[in-house]
Amino acid sequence: MQDNRKQTALITGASGGIGYEFAKLFAQNGYNLVLVARSGEKLNKIADEFKNKFGIDVKVITKDLSNPSAPEEIFTELEQASITVDVLVNNAGFATYGLFNEIDLNTELQLLQVNISCLTHLTKLFLKGMVEQRFGKILNVASTAAFQPGPLMAVYYASKAYVLSFSEAIANELEGTGVSVTALCPGPTESDFQQRAAMEDSKLVSGKKIMTAETVAQIGYRGLLENKTLVVPGIKNKLLAESVRFTPRKLVTKLVRKMQESK
After folding, report:
1. Other C-beta atoms lying within 10 Å of the C-beta of residue 258
2. CATH number of residue 161's parent domain
3. Catalytic residue list contains 156
């Protein structure tokens, strides 16, 4: 394993929430960073903060990951800058809320592009170099949503089921290569995620005490370093994920619908 000071972590969706907290953890531990998000202004502020505070190198890449060409552009830019990515954190993602039949199609397609296609594309591009150097780590942010269908957030739940299944499968394929893959499955988390999905009034989050982005990132970071394939933060979330296996699917779907409805 290389010295941490020489390692570089690429984090998508790094301008806030769990992504920012991941960036801070890697910076504190001496990693150089590549930060990717749509907001260049926010990223540049974070970059300046971390450079001054932790004495690391930070490269900012402003990209809209709903654009299909974004992963290849990111990879090419880093290749041209001779930056090797040792840790890839596919954190970027968003949700839609409401009846599938009523949600704007283009928004749903952008969700699939960011949550599934971009994550898969970036993994494909950076994984080859990791295998060749026989060292690397990939963390894909899924969700407890991955364990069951989600009425009123149908496409989001399905996208996270893909992330979990994909991560577990390639983790198995990569055994013995020196490369690990971790799927992080948090429950509801304090961030602007709920506002963007316009689901602040959902029973799932409204009035509930939910985990902070900092706590989720810390648990995910430890799991990544320990080469865990699956990390579910919190006892309650772990129990929820396990209980679904022993409950009839139709009942699970009805219960999730009830939790998702507005108060």
Report:
1. 11
2. 3.40.50.720
3. yes
Distance of CA 85 to the CA centre of its chain: 17
Mean pLDDT of the chain: 92
What whole-number distance in Å separates Cα of residue 138 and Cα of residue 201? 34
For 34, half-sphere exposure in the C-beta direction (CA atoms, 13 angstrom radius) is 22
Could you say which of 97, 156, 162, 221 is catalytic? 156
Q: Residue 33 in contact with residue 78, Cβ under 8 Å?
A: no
- Split into its structural domains, the chain has a count of 1
pLDDT digits (tens, 9 = 90+) for 155-181: 999 999 999 999 999 999 999 999 999
At residue 59, the 3 state secondary structure works out as strand
Q: How many residues does the chain have?
A: 263
Q: What percent of the chain has pLDDT over 70?
A: 91
Query: Residue 134: which domain range?
Result: 4-260
Please state the pTM of the whole predicted model.
Answer: 0.90
Question: What is the Cα 152 distance to its own chain's centre?
Answer: 21
